[in-house]
Amino acid sequence: MDDANAVDVAGVPASTLNLIDLSSSDIRRSVSLLKQACLDSGFFYVINHGVSQDLMEEVFVQSRRFFGLPLSEKMKLLRNEKHRGYTPLINGDYKEGYYIGVEVPEDDPRAQKPHFGPNFWPSEDILPRWRQAMEKFHLVTRIIALALDLEADFFDKPEILGEPIATLRLLHYEVFDPFKGIYGAGAHSDFGFITLLATDDVPGLQICKNKNAKPPTWEYSTLHRVIGNGQEQYSIAFFLEPNHDCLIECLPTCMSEENPPKLDDTHADLNVYRREGA
């Protein structure tokens, strides 16, 4: 990721990125702004999303409480093969995290699928009300994600988002020095349907607007990273991905007899596994 193409997100005026008002009655304008943002920077702000300020503050408070626990307590909840639980600070990105997914009981047939299963929760004696706060936030952020359909209910179909891979990830970035080659998160792009990100007031997130620097195969996902500025940083990321068996194919509005699909159809889980194994 070239520094010349990097644009700070947290420290720039809101006008720099498009602002999507989910309560607006002007749907045409909202769709136009969203499309422009996705084609330009890949990032945009969302307001009037239905998540109360009190809930947001509570989740950040609970996140700080968890990451402030002794490492021995956090390691009791080490992330498992279902991507649930704690990820410690190790070589690489200078951050620790905590994964929470859709709650699926062990005896549920869906628990046999990757990324599906029961969550890990800290003991009520250690962190009272922590689980309740996270479950509520996970629910409302999923509702927000489903509310961002470009056309009414096109993506809100059982075969697409009936049983999505939805993951909430709490993130804590330690104090680090990017001039020594250390980053909170190195340059990367996300995969899936959409990522919703709530941040604290500490700047550090950068996006790379020059998408032509590395032409994608068929998906558009903006390179971004987290740099340090001498302060701890906290963020909450919500990743929404389609069903495991969701068919990924060219949209009807993007093809014709004269302009047929350029790539073969695939399934969501196949693309995810290829990306994770890369």
TrEMBL record:
Domain of life from the UniProt record: Eukaryota
Q: Which Pfam families match?
A: 2OG-FeII_Oxy, DIOX_N
Q: Where is the Non-haem dioxygenase N-terminal domain?
A: 18-124
Q: Which SUPFAM superfamilies match?
A: Clavaminate synthase-like (SSF51197)
Signal sequence residues: none
Task: Specify the Isopenicillin N synthase-like Fe(2+) 2OG dioxygenase domain's residue ranges.
Answer: 169-242
For this protein, the record's InterPro entries field holds: DIOX_N, IPNS-like_FE2OG_OXY, IPNS-like_sf
GO MF term list: metal ion binding; oxidoreductase activity
Q: Which UniProt keywords apply?
A: Iron, Metal-binding, Oxidoreductase
Q: Which family does it belong to?
A: Belongs to the iron/ascorbate-dependent oxidoreductase family.
Q: What is this protein called?
A: Fe2OG dioxygenase domain-containing protein
Upper lineage ranks? Answer: Eukaryota, Viridiplantae, Streptophyta, Embryophyta, Tracheophyta
